[in-house]
Amino acid sequence: RWQSIFRNDAPICLEVCAGAGEWAVSRAKECTGLNWVASEIRGDRIHQICTRMLNEGLPNLAVLGGDAALALQHHTQPNTFSAIWVNYPEPPPDHDDTSANGWLLTLGFFESVHAALTPSGEGFYIVSDNLTLLDTVAPVLLGMHAADDEAPPFTPRSGTMAGQPAVKHAGLSRAGAALIGEGLPAGFGDGGSSYFDRLWASRAKQRRFFLHMTKGGRLRHESQSGPTS
Fold first, then answer.
1. What is the CATH number of domain 2-215?
2. Tag placement on the chain: N or C end, fewer CB within 10 Å?
């Protein structure tokens, strides 16, 4: 359906939890050869994104209102998005319980992301100034099970597994060192004084980190249900 909305076959990038849409609007303005979808669950923020989109006259930006995790799981065709971005996600309500309700970055979410990504696309990004949060999700991503005789579900493009220097931080897990990069990933843009940059500055943070992975082989349950198309 996205092709009928954008009326072209350009690659589609999804931002999950887009907030007021400043980052998505900035990327849509700069990357006019790509289509962008800003996903947000809060009604007031959906209104803000729509207002910005209309004011800027961006035919390559659409708004998806609702729960992104459910939309990816139940209402997204396989191989839909070239890139999926999660920028500055909230930590779990209980910092010690990543299975708590309301926590986005679960195994089920990553499985939905994997199915929704195109094999030749830019992949999956998580950007955060919270190293502990990324260190928490890194083992989940590394532990995802591939189908027999398949490559790992995700191919790391950040961290030591991608040939980058290890992030210097005491207590970083082996999985975190393997997957987490420092700075901002290519494709993030300059931020354009976005909400994320103001948030980062207000927290007096000095470092930012990211995970970047591209789609690899099929997951075990995908092979059991047959090939996707």
1. 3.40.50.150
2. C
